Structures are given as C-alpha cells and as structure tokens.
Please model this.
Amino acid sequence: MSGAVYIAGRGAISCIGKNVQENIGALRRGEAGIGAIRYLRTVHANTFPAGEVKATNEELRDLSELTGTNSRTTMLGLIAAKEALTEAGLWEGGQLKKTLGGRSLRIGLISSTTVAGMDLTEEFFPAFMANHSAGRLRNVYQHEAGATTEYIARALGITEYINTISTACSSSANAIMLGARMLKAGMLDIVLAGGTDALSKFTLNGFSTLMILDQQLCQPFDQNRRGLNLGEGAGFLVLAGEQMMEALGREKRVRLSGYANANDAHHQTASSPDGTGSFMAMKGAIDMAQLNCSAIGYINLHGTGTQNNDASESTAIHRLFGDEYPAMSTTKSFTGHTLAACGALEAIYSAVSLEEQILFPSLRISLPVIEKPGVVVQELRRVSGLQHVLSNSFGFGGNCSSLLFSLS
Amino acid sequence: MYINGASAISPLPVFDALNEGVRFTEPEGARAKVSEPDYSKLIDPKLIRRMSRIIRMGVATAMDALKQAGLQQPDAIITGTAYGCLDDTGIFLRRLVENQEEMLTPTAFIQSTHNTVGAQVALMLKCHSYNNTYVQRSQSFELSLHDSRLWLTENPDHSVLVGAADELTDYSFALLQRFGLFRYHTAGEGAAYFVIQNKAADSTWAQLKGVRTLFRPDAAQLDLIMKELLALAGGSVDLLLSGERRGDPEGENYKSVKQVLGAEIPVLQYKNYCGEYPTASAFATWLAAWCLKQGKLEHEGLSIDRLRNVLIYQADAAGYHSFILLSHVKL
Model:
C-alpha cells in the first residue's frame, strides 16, 4: 500500500465557467459569477445573490448530452466528469476507454452530493402534498443522492465501482480522499472523484433560516463579513497512480500528497471556537506528507464568509502555523459556496496555482481576518517556488477534511 | 475482521437480544415500523426528545455496539444511509411549500443532511476521528463496510464503528408504494451499528470474511464472485440470508445464487422480518452475526446445528448486487 496519486484529468463547471479553462480565466481576471438569481424559481431571487451556472436546464441537457428528465445536479456532474475523463485521455468518440495497452482498466466513480435531485423533488412536491397519487414520478427518481451518481455512471459506462459520499460541504474532498486510498490499496486503476450540487430552494431556504446568507456579494475572510452566498456546480478529478499516469501518457505534475478527515464534534452546524476539527484535518494532511508547516506556500481556504466559519478556520490556522502564515485566499468569493462540489472545484484551482505559480485572490476584502500584510491574497499574485498547497473543506456535522497537493 | 459489538433496531424486536434472545415474528400489514426500545439507559432523555427517529435509532445502536465491545472512542465512524433523514427533509419541504418560502425555522433543515446520524454519534462521543457517510442506494451499508475494511488495512490496530440507518415516513411510504415496491411485501426500516476490529475478543459475534458489491453485472461476473466467496468460506456455505422479497422481480438472480450454493442450501429471507428498505442488509448482517454467535439455528423448518458460514445476498431492480460473508468464531 504505497505510491503517489496524481491528477490525470480535471473537469469543472460553476458560475464562473462551464469548463476548467473558463473557470481559470475568470479567476485570473478577478471576475466573480455571483449575482441576482435568474434560473432557480424562488421568492428570494432578488434577496439573496447566488452563483448560478449560467445556463438553463435545456442548455445543460444539450451540454451533458443526456435525454429524459434529469436533475440539474446530475447534468452538472456529468458535464464535469466528461471533461475530466477527456483531459485524461479516457473519453474518446463519446465513449469511455475501458482498456489501455490491451489491459482492461478498473475504473471507479466516487461522486458526492448534498441535495441530489432536490430540484426536481421541489417541482413534484406541491401536487404530491395535496394528493399522494398526484405528481410525476419521474421527478422523484433522482431524489436519492446515490441515484444522481448512478445516472452519471450509466451515461459514462462505469460499472466497476460506484459510490456517493454525503458529508455536507466536505463531501467531494472526502470523495477525492477515498479515491486516493483505493488507488493506493490497489483496488482500482483509475478513479473519477468529485462532487456536484445544483442550487435548490431547499438549500437556499435552509441556509436562510440559519441566518448565514449574505444579501450582498459575500466578503469571506473579511472582518466585516456578513455571511455566505450559495453557488452551484460540479468538479471532478481523474486520479491515477504512477504506472497508470505513464500508461495514459500524462505528465506527472500535481500529486495528492496528503489528506485527512476529522470531526469537530462540537455542534451539528457550527464550528468550534478553537477550530479543533479544522486543525486536525490540516495537521493530518501535512503530517501524512511528512512536511513541516513552513513548506505550505498557500491555503485555498474553506472561507465561506460566515462569522463562525472564518473565525474558527483562522483560529485553527493560527494554532497550526503560528504567525508564520502561508498565503491564503478563498475562491468562494468568485463561485459562492457550491456545497458538495467545492472540495473538488477548489482542488482544481489549487492544482492550477501549483502548475502556473499563481495565487487567486479573495475578492472584496477591505479588512482581512488575518491582518498581517500580504497573507490574505487580494490581487492575482505571481509566485515562484510554490511546492505545496492545502485545500480546506469543512461542513455541517463537524465533517472537516483537508487535501494537500504538491508539485512533482 | 471481527464483529466485536453488534446492535440493531428493527421491526423485529432484537435490541435486547443478548438478554432476551430472538423470537421470530413477521410484521403484519403493509408497513413495518421499528420496535423502539427504552433509550434512556443509553441516551440522556432530554436529548432523545430532540432527536428524530432515524437519529435516535442510529445513535442508540451505535452506543450499544460500543458498550458491548468495551470501547469509549472508535478510530473511525462510518455510516450508510440510502435516503438520509427523510422525516426532517419532508417536514422542511412541506413547510417550504405551505409557507411559500417564508417564515421557516431551521431545526428540520439542520437535521435533514445525510451525515446527521454519523455526526450525532461523533458529537455524543466527542469523537474527533475519521467520519464518513455513504449514500449509494442499496449498497450504502456494503460500501461502508468496504471502507471499514480499507481503514483496518491502513490502520491494523484501529476500531471502526460502522453501521446504517434508514427510516420510513408517510411521504416515502406513499411514494415508494407508487413505484410498486410494496406490492407484495411489507415496507420496512431500521438501524444497526457494529464495532469491527482486526482481532477477535470475548465480545466477538462473528468474523466478517468478505464484502462484494456489483453494479449491473453479467452472469459470468456473478459466477466469479460466487466462486471467490465460496473459496473464502472454505468450500461451503451453511445458510443463505437472502434479500428476496415475496413476488420479487429479481427472483431469477436469487435462484442462480442458490444454484451455485447447492440445491439443499437452507435459505432465510430476512426481509420477512425487517421489511423492505435499502439498507436492510445491515439488519441481515446483525442477524447473520447473531446466528453465528449461537453457532446454530432452529427456525421454521430450518435446523442447522453446526453453523459455520453465512452468506448474505441481495439484488435489486436498479442493478445493485451485493454479498457479505460471515463466519463462526470459536472463542
């Protein structure tokens, strides 16, 4: 049980772009995708800004090449999954490549979601509530979290291993972590891991009742932050070991060198004041890579913009790094909080930071939570010698996970 | 891997099985509710009142399994649930529709996330360990076991608390009935947690020898897995715990598995006792472990006095197939 795990392919869709290139372009230009709600039908459309993928369901259906009734969550996931497989050279002529050099590949899909097909369930529910025999059943078939993954797997032709994780906002970080563990254990040859979540009335209203939604554009990691903006999207990584990278003809550039999952065990929705879970997750990932904290050049923060998260996360960072802070920023100021997708999307942004030696900024900062000059990145920053990047994802239920990416 | 603590809450009253044994009775009617025990010995009554049913039964079985194994803190908490916290999801959805997205309260939303059961277990134990929740339909429990096995391979001295929970609500019953799921069979629900370690102990119930999951396999793949499992079992299985329901459209799959095991293989259809629900295989695992702990089974025409290997198999219309193999441990 050993060996390095590399990123062989990436796929991303969010409010700042429908593929990785568009996402990175927007991050470089400092263009957020958050604004008034246009696609979700909700009474709060003009109250809470959100980061919606700029496409109707019909447009997403065309992009994903799915037919029939599908959840927005399924379509977003499939679009990102196909992009990741294509980059890895595993999607050719509209089909999954199941053999390589005459050898059949064991390919696994580990997805994650928090709302799954809730967007369709919401359409179904009013009629069903009034009369239990009313409402179209095709609108509830993807209610189950695992069903969205199943539809993605069927569209891709993956059968070897299919799994879905649902640990709130840390979901796709945990999917990537499980994928790496399975590769190291030799259980699979290739893992497609990530997460997908569409914006829904359920989550929008849920977060609204918790009074943690910002009615303006969010200012995460700012002392005057007011809350978070929700987003939507999907991110997938193709993960592979050394031999498989060579077989795929992929350059071994970014490696998942550490990961850890810990539980804050403090409260169902709030993070502990001392950031126990976040501290343990970050420390665990760094320890696994056998690095000192000083080796970490940048943290892609969980950084949601809520009072609670940003206080707890910055406390945990201070506990771990002391005053020797690495640079850090939160790309949720561009995308909003994409829930199950954020771990994978931010893993992709972190990998690009390593490859291109650039740090994406936190937008709209006036007074950073960590005041030491230069720590919270506020403008696109070119760097050199960046070797290790930490990506944080913390969620409800105390589920905290950190991923550590390193340049090879 | 050894099951060193096992606890279940099910329509079949088994929570106190260690003291009272198991009396097999089939639930009556279309809908089987779990038989809830007196929780107050395990959970503070003030907390119980705030918990939904799925959380209560999940947390109680988790605490009970830990107590049996004499364990304060597990090194990993892994939970499977296909539907998640359906009751609170339904409550929040209903209010959202009724109040047209205004004047909502957070409690139901907070408790609706799929990881609530695993999170509440961690919270109650103040346990900071690895915590994960798997939600892959009828394989949610098997994939949790799968991760447990991986975890114990990576960390051989650790203890894993692994389980599954699913609840049936008025909404889900009405809906699943329309899908035809309960046409011939009772709807069910339940929770079960297990403490799993690499070493046997005084509290050992059974050895967990193998877990296999398949999605839309062909006959050759199924056959190969069966042969692997038979080899793991040392050539023969004494009892098949079958997920077959009355009038099951997957009857052919169950038939071919029985054929591989031999025409005379004793079969117990566990969903007759816990009802039909996606993580029923967690109940089946509890039942298999219980039978293996006794080392024998006397039940409705079945009489096995030397019970060594029990295989659990289930298949569903979506194409999920799974096998769990358990063996007797001589203490």
User: Anything to note?
Assistant: DSSP finds twelve helices and 18 strands in chain A. Chain A has a mean pLDDT of 97. Chain A touches chain B through 61 residues (CB under 8 Å). The radius of gyration of chain A is 20 Å.
